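for the writeup, i need someone to sanity check this before i put it in the appendix. the sequnce is what the collaborator sent (i think, or maybe the updated version? ugh). structure was predicted straight from it, no edits. if anything looks off just tell me and ill rerun, i have time this weekend
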Amino acid sequence: MAGNDWINSYLEAILDVGPGIDDAKSSLLLRERGRFSPTRYFVEEVITGFDETDLHRSWARAQATRSPQERNTRLENLCWRIWNLARQKKQLEGEQAQRMAKRRLERERGRREAVADMSEDLSEGEEGDTVGDFLAHGESNRGRLPRISSVETMEAWASQQKEKKWYIVLISLHGLIRGENMELGRDSDTGGQVKYVVELARALGSMPGVYRVDLLTRQVSSLEVDWSYGEPTEMLPPRNSEGLNEMGESSGAYIIRIPFGPRDKYIPKELLWPYLSEFVDGALSHIIQMSKVLGEQVGGGHPVWPVAIHGHYADAGDSAALLSGALNVPMLFTGHSLGRDKLEQLLRQGRLSRDEINSTYKIMRRIEAEEISLDASETVITSTRQEIEEQWRLYDGFDPILGRKLRARIRRNVSCYGRFMPRMAVIPPGMEFHHIVPHDGDMDGEMEGNEDGKSPDPHIWGEIMRYFTNPRKPMILALARPDPKKNLMTLVKAFGECRPLQELANLTLIMGNRDDVDEMSSTSASVLLSILKLIDKYDLYGQVAYPKHHKQSDVPDIYRLAAKTKGVFINPAFIEPFGLTLIEAAAHGLPIVATRNGGPVDIHRVLDNGLLVDPHNQQSIADALLKLVADKQLWSKCRANGLKNIHLFSRPEHCKTYLTKIASCKPRQPRWLRNDDDDENSESDSPNDSLRDIQDISLNLKFSLDGDKNVGKENGDGSLDLDDRKSKLETAVLSWSRGVQKTTQKSGSTDKGDQNSGAGKFPALRRRKYMFVIAVDCGALSESVKRIFDALEKEKAEGSIGFILATSFNLSELHSFLVSERLNPIDFDAFICNSGGDLYYSSLHSDENPFIVDLYYHSHIEYRWGGEGLRKTLVRWAASITDKKGDDKEHIVVEDEKNSADYCYSFKVCRPGVVPPVRELRKVMRIQALRCHVIYCQNGSKINVIPVLAARCQALRYLYLRWGMDLSKVVVFVGESGDTDYEGLLGGVHKSVILKGVCSGESSQLHANRSYPLTDVVAFDNPNLIQTSEDCSSAELRESLEKLGVLKS
């Protein structure tokens, strides 16, 4: 990597010992290249982008070898390794080019097909190919970010928001999060994101129109961390007294810590994935309870649901998507750093293979979580345009060109045929500036003031200045972790090789906290040692400070010291996603020198308070620093510009823009009406929907036993059979009414001995002590149901437990199964059908119709459902999956129109072993901006495509939300394998029982081509999960339930 001085030194040594190496044994690379600059070649062409730690160690050993012959042998071997590195780099570049070409072709093909489906002729507004035109909502690259121009504008805006009482939920899961004394830099998970989300929550909590903000994170009760991280709730008081006005009983900002994962361990983010479902269930419980509390305070008795759930980073994005689907509320997402970009960087380094990268970083699970976040988000918030142009466009679910076409059609009120693209909003992070007073004096004046008895200098000043021979010289300040990406070694080298800069300035490196270099991570220790060697090489003692410790509260004082000496702040990182330190430095009156790669470009465009440099160009860095330090007039101008424009990055401004984006989201919340006064005892609430209301939300009412799809379809002339459809709708409403018309009485009037009769209240699942969900896939469902019923015969007869059947069957297949197995529909309280696309309850009037559809479930899951546009694309995909046999083509996947439903498109798979893996079909749909959940089921013989936020596990969360079914009292039975949504059934606060020997091999082919192993998402050491013995009996199954604490011995 450019800037690693040892590369130059060992190459120079190789040249120095050239005569001592026999020509016959000389390096092939040096011999064949002839006259050229090996230093420049290796540094700029070979080493750049690779992790050369091993080469560095080899060079250190060679340098320490006394024997000339052995030293020459080591150097020759080193040359061969570098030559091999050159070959490896060329190979990786070729592979990367192939990946990019493949992605480009897939994107272009998907875009063509999407445009072809949108049959209306494109207008001029839908044409164009330049990325700059496709940024969020048509923002121009040249235009500045929209800003508040005056205090009066902010006050006018604030007065408009006062009547609102918003509830906002933020999620940030990894790292150690608390409101005060944040341990930033303690580990790689506790960094800038932690500070950002805490301060965002604090600032939002004091904004007009926002009643409450909850920042959800993980509760860590471990001896290795401070006790404060185990506190369930922590209030975040406003930084100034203005935010204390009009506070309500539960208003303000809070950190809410949800327990999930190992209770006594603090684990890195890569190991959190298997426990996310547990977090989602805990967060869902908190949000529901808080919504009721806020409803009593400011909602007139009606629950106040979150206006948005905002996930930060991939793990929180995945969780926010599930919560958004469970609650039917809008979702926002901020990636902070993105998995695909990191994967590309790691592959370019060549140190780890793809499998090793995935094993270490769980990178494929992270990428899938980011794709899911794109599917579910209304708005994706970024800090810079660079993140959109160079990082998000790597994802299947985001295409700026197609996004612009869709927005043009939306503006013209033209159908997009079921296609959706999340909005990209650039909102730079904000800061609090009210406590910052830029220093206007100089070093001499301050020293004299202190002698006259003024307050002493901050302690950290003494810690820094003790390093300097002349502490009054301007200070060049860099504040970053000792990470290769931060490029601090190039900075030290630039300073060391520029004598005029050394004469005019000192250099201060704030590189986190350390006690012992040997206790640091290998990467950080390597960077720090390299810097110390450079200081020694250039004899920079007395000119460079590198203090071992500093507190977070010391950082403003460090900026003040640099400004007092008329110094400069520098961020020389190779790529900087945003650069919050640049804003902090500008607020303290420091001109900046920053990398031209990433967020600093946007910051410089607004502040105009310094210079941008090429981080790979050492001379460019030295020249920029020297120019600002030497030219006092330029220094003063940059300082003045920064202070004049810094309010544009204030936290109130950031929050105002943020809230404006939330306001632009289409409001969503649970659709049914709650009767809170009778919530404790009532078994159901009246639908209170007119026939028109039901038609408006396009509910799937085709629940007749023959599964006929012809009802309500278009006639030959294109008209709808309205009489038939109206009849069907009326029948549905009457069926529902018969099930709920007797539920207005108090539960105390129900005959407890007749809970399974028609006199019982609907739905019965609200009365159950435990709910048992049978979600066994493959062909073992029949035997499993009988075994489970036998094991629970006593409790079933008492009526204390209930059963839910969760399956990929449609209603017709379900009825056939029940009839063939001689099961009565009222043996089950609910049926989750079509892999989560439909929800039914058993009817008390089984003679007329044994099933009642939940009219609200479809409106709950229909978010971004592609409808007919999705179906046509799926049919076209199915037609492309063929097996050529001579001149004939055998279709492998065919549409199963008879067994499809309004919210589940089904396809038959004729040859399961030949069909592409499920991830390929998901990819095809995402590229075309179609958001859906693809599930391979029934041993791979069937494909169900349902709404993107629907699933069997999500249907259970819906039952909790709608009917109060306690998820901790739910037991889910599954086999050893299952459909491709199998993993979602194994996590959460519910109990899971894996039936050994059931589905042990039949469905393995469905999971053989997973992007990530099942262990990345399922915690098999979870105490709520138990595996039975092979082909266990009913008695053994009962023993397993006793071990889980569900049944008493």
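The first helix runs from residue 5 to 16. Confidence is low (pLDDT under 50) at residues 13-41, 120-150, 673-723, 725-761.
thx in advance!!
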